[in-house]
Amino acid sequence: MSHVYASLGDLKNMITDSGATSLGTTNDTLLLGVLASVSETIDDRMERSGFGSGFGPRTGTNRYNGSGGSTLRLRDDLLTVTSITIRPSTASATTSTPAADTDYYLLDGEDGYGPAPYRKILLHGQGTITAFGSGLRVTDVAGTWGFQNVTVTSSATTSEALDTSETGVDVSSGAAFSPGQTILIDTEQMYISSIATNTLTVVRAANGTTAATHSTSAAIAVYQYPAKVREVCLRLALKRWKARDAGADGTDEGSGIPGTPREGEDTIIRRSLGLLRLKEMV
């Protein structure tokens, strides 16, 4: 489950001035689907990642081809490295594991030394390992990927112990959360698909994290995304919802009035998020 950049409550509040609760829950599944679809569209148009990363963190291993050089272009946003494994050739069983600073430096999108996200790994030649392998899938980079890793700790906590498979998470206050949010308990990400009073229905082990046991009264953090990304997500979701009601094609934001076209989605994304687009880096 990829990150969704705005919550159901946020979208409902945009749809009606009366507040989210006035809309009821009949269309919750459809509205969440729109938010998820818009978030995927934003990731696709930004072209920052060749591996499915977005504006929230993903845990995983990216595998790269190599030509024997000293620089690896990541085609992804790297936040932290867990390990790097290099094979000299495709068929080789021999591996080496370069060490940070001793063998390599991480470079950002402008070939500087940070802060994250990083876009390149440079074997600087002063250590033992001085070159990447040559061939297909010869370098594995395990770590945390994505544009940023920002959370806000909720005032609510878990009100039960969790095993590794339970999808109904009892919390001290369900009102502190909204469907569409991705939360973090210990090191496991969970996506909230619905809420009934103080029980969150979640997708476990989201974004490459591992399902784990959690204790009662465990802290819960909520992922945050760049303000502009959240704003565009809500704007496009509202646009699609209005167009659905009006039977429009999405170019007029559901106004249904011929001859008065508005900004299309690509234009909105380009104008609002253009500085975050990295096609040349992917």
Short description:
The protein is α+β, with helices and mostly antiparallel strands. The chain has a domain of 88 residues.
Question: Can you walk me through this structure?
Answer:
The two termini are 22 Å apart. The chain has helices at 8-15, 28-46, 227-246, 265-273, and strands at 58-67, 71-86, 104-107, 118-123, 134-145, 150-157, 168-170, 182-185, 188-196, 199-203, 219-224. Helix 2 crosses helix 3 and helix 3 (227-246) packs antiparallel against helix 4 (265-273). The protein has a domain at 58-145. The relative contact order is 0.18. It contains four helices and eleven strands, in the order H-H-E-E-E-E-E-E-E-E-E-E-E-H-H. With 282 residues, the chain is α+β, with helices and mostly antiparallel strands. Strand 9 and strand 10 (199-203) form a beta hairpin. The chain is globular.
Blueprint of the fold:
Elements: H1 8-15, H2 28-46, E1 58-67, E2 71-86, E3 104-107, E4 118-123, E5 134-145, E6 150-157, E7 168-170, E8 182-185, E9 188-196, E10 199-203, E11 219-224, H3 227-246, H4 265-273
Antiparallel strand pairs: 1-5, 2-4, 2-5, 3-4, 6-11, 7-10, 8-9, 8-11, 9-10
